[in-house]
Design a protein that fits this description.
By secondary structure, the chain is an alpha/beta fold. It has helices at 22-32, 51-58, 68-77, 113-121, 136-143, 153-161, 201-213, 219-222, 229-235, 248-260, and strands at 18-19, 40-43, 61-65, 83-87, 102-107, 127-135, 162-170, 175-176, 183-190.
């Protein structure tokens, strides 16, 4: 077991690695650019490395924390007027219960980062922007371009809903205990309704999931539930290609084509 940090042992089951590098903290806070009166929620405040400077910037902060010991520390350090503490698992938290035009920030636990990102995408219409620290490999997948190794379901679905920007990397030495991987900061800004040109987002999700479900197989095989050879021809898509060769706009075209033909939800 690693030595305690400020009297607290990092809990592996919660994916706890605490940010301690002052320069990195200042860069993240500057990227978030919280202003007085803005609605901001921090996921997993931990020992307060970001919490304290964010509070100074915006005056009041919502936090979502699952660790009871850390919750107790937060309650001792801050009044309810400063900090609204939501106790529990961020994966099950209803972010729509918070004010609109919300900024969401946090050092997301590596072990739940992907499902948490999809959970947050469901409330994107209430969010101004999200700024997260995640494992570098996950950020690579989030911002990946077509025909690259990192390109897949996560990137396509998040890029459909958000404008994505990778900001900077964070080395393992910036944390205690030090993780075995490099982290990265990513900004996600929800797209405007007029930019979301897919007729059925759930159907898009099914198409994308199928296309990447068996990466070595061709689209003729992975999308056989949705398209026949004549459909590929109508869409000008090579059925011998693989899912990673299609751009986001291609996936949207496929989903809209299927929606217009009345492909039923399953």
């Amino acid at each position: 077991m690693s030595a305690p940090l400020d009297g607290h042992f990092a809990r592996k089951r919660f994916g706890q690695n605490f940010l301690v590098d002052g320069n990195i903290i200042r860069k993240i806070v500057a990227a978030i650019a919280a202003r007085p009166g803005e609605a901001v929620v921090e996921i997993g405040p931990g020992l307060g490395a970001l919490t304290e400077p964010l509070l100074e910037a915006c005056g009041h902060l919502h936090v979502v924390e699952i660790d009871r010991d850390l919750i107790a520390r937060l309650k001792l350090a801050h009044t309810p007027e400063e900090l609204t503490i939501h106790e529990g698992d961020a994966l099950r938290f209803d972010f729509t219960s918070l004010p609109t035009d919300l900024k969401v920030v946090g050092n997301l636990p590596y072990n739940i980062s992907t499902p948490l990102l999809f959970h947050l995408a469901d409330c994107a219409e209430r969010v101004r922007e999200m700024t997260f620290m995640l494992q570098k490999e996950v950020v690579d997948r989030m911002v990946a371009a077509p025909d690259t190794e990192a390109y897949g379901r996560l990137g396509v679905m998040l890029q459909y809903r958000f404008h994505m920007a990778r900001l900077f990397d964070v080395p393992p030495g910036a944390f205690r205990p030090s993780p075995k991987v490099t982290s990265a900061i990513v900004r996600m800004q929800p797209k405007k309704p007029e930019e979301l040109d897919c007729q059925d987002a759930q159907l898009l999700g099914r198409v994308v999931t199928a296309a990447f479900g068996q990466r070595r197989k061709t689209l003729r095989n992975t999308l056989r539930e949705f398209l026949g050879d004549e459909d590929f021809a109508a869409l000008a898509i090579d059925p011998r290609a693989r899912g990673e060769t299609l751009a986001l706009s291609d996936f949207v075209r496929v989903a809209n084509f299927c929606a217009e033909r009345g492909v039923a939800e399953t």
